[in-house]
């Protein structure tokens, strides 16, 4: 089962990511369901705990009340697909989501610092990946110049 890096620590992953079109059943404890299955899951299996989106999904596909979701995950189908970065910023800044925003799928270790800048605070890492490399790269830089989802003030505003 993939591991998680959350708040710069390695933790076990208790979430199950269900395929598109699959809804949780009464035995599913903590499932991430695709956003397209969200409404059906509410009606048949109770309230889902979290949703996931592909980087090709748009902000309009999200439910209106994001505050009830414990986790929103964005899937990177290939490491060259940067749309998930933009989607994360929109979820944080336009929809004001303050819960866990998780990166899943095919992202590379050298992208985690930038993913964090866009608003991700959790990263699902495959078992065969070196976690220590990811942990080092999340905090690769001490100071940043630009404002971002993780620090809304640019450097010149932080220096007083």
Poorly predicted residue ranges:
none
Described by the principal axes of the CA atoms, the overall outline is globular
Counted by DSSP, the helix tally is 5
Q: Tell how many strands the DSSP assignment holds.
A: 8
Q: Tell me the number of structural domains.
A: 1
Taken as a percent bin, the fraction of beta residues is 15-25%
Write out the strand line-up for the largest beta sheet, numbering strands in chain order. Answer: 2-1-8-7-6-5-4-3
| Cα-atom radius of gyration | 16 Å
Secondary-structure element string: EEEEHEEHEHEHH
- In this structure, how is the largest beta sheet organized? 8 strands, mixed
Nearest-integer average pLDDT: 85
Q: Provide the helix percentage.
A: 10-25%
Structural class: alpha/beta
Oligomer: single chain
Euclidean distance between termini CA atoms: 46 Å
Task: Write up what this structure looks like.
The protein is built from five helices and eight strands; from the N terminus they run E-E-E-E-H-E-E-H-E-H-E-H-H. The protein has one domain. Helix content is 23%, strand content 21%. The protein has an eight-stranded mixed beta sheet. It has 160 residues and is an alpha/beta fold.
